[in-house]
Amino acid sequence: MMIETIDIKQAKTRYNVLDVIRKRWSPRSFSKYPLMPEEIETLLEAATWAPSAMNEQPWRFVVASKEDEEKFRKLADFLVPGNRVWAENAAVLMVVFGVTTYARNGKENINVGHDVGMATQNLLLQGVSMDVYGHVMEGFDKDRVIEEFQLPDNIRPLTMLALGRLDVPDLLEEPYYSREQSPRTRRSVEDSVISFPEM
Question: Is 10 within a domain?
C-alpha cells in the first residue's frame, strides 16, 4: 500500500525547485513490493552519470535485493540495530564505497566523498521519479564490511542505502513513527551562503 500522506513530506520551498527535489526525503517505512531488476539497473545507471573530478567515477556499489535472501541478510547484518529494525523491510540494500586514489597516478583523491555523494544523489532523485525512495545510512559496521568483502585498501565503505516503495508508517515503532510523520525543515538559503569579506 502506498503511503497516503506523502504530500506532508514534500519540501515547502520559497523558490520553484524541481519536483523530484521537493519530494526526495528519507523514509523508514517501506512496502513489501520488490524492485524489478531493470528498476535497480536504472537507479545505478543514473548514479553512473554523476560528475566527478577527472571523470574518475570513484563510486562502487554492492547491491542486494530482498529476493536474494542470503545476500540481503548479509548486508542487513552490517547495520546498527537502530537502522536495521526498519531498513530490513526495504526492497533493496546497498553498500556505497569510494575509491580513495586516482586510477591514473595512484594519488589521493580528496574529492571522493563529494563525488560519491553526487552519484548517490543522482540515484535518489532518479528513484523519486520512479516512486522509489531511499534512506542513506552512516550507521553500520564499516570494519566488518571491509573484512567481509576483502577489497583493496583504497576502496572504503562510506554509506549504506535502503531503497523501496513507500508504505504507511503505522507499523513503525517509536521513535521512528514520529520521525516519519514530522514535517521536513531546512535552514534558510541565506544561512547557507557565506558573504564576501568587506573589501
Answer: no
Among residues 11, 28, 8, the alpha carbon closest in space to that of 20 is found at 11
- Give the pTM: 0.89
- Picking from 94, 81, 90, 82, the residue whose alpha carbon sits closest to that of residue 176 is 82
Q: Is 194 part of a structural domain of the chain?
A: no
Determine, yes or no, domain membership for 36: yes
Look at residue 50 and tell me if it is in a domain: yes
Instruction: Scan for cell 564490511, then name that residue.
Output: 145
What Rg do the C-alpha atoms of the chain give, in angstroms? Answer: 18
Kindly give the confidence (pLDDT) of every residue in the chain, 199 residues in length, as a single tens digit, with 9 standing for 90 and above.
343 444 457 888 888 989 999 889 889 899 989 999 999 999 999 999 999 999 999 999 999 999 999 999 999 999 999 999 999 999 999 999 999 999 999 999 999 999 999 999 999 999 999 999 999 999 999 999 999 999 999 999 999 999 999 988 777 788 877 877 777 778 888 888 888 888 7
CATH number at residue 114: 3.40.109.10
Which CA distances in Å does 11 have to 6, 48, 103, 186? 11, 26, 39, 9
Domain that holds residue 54: 23-166
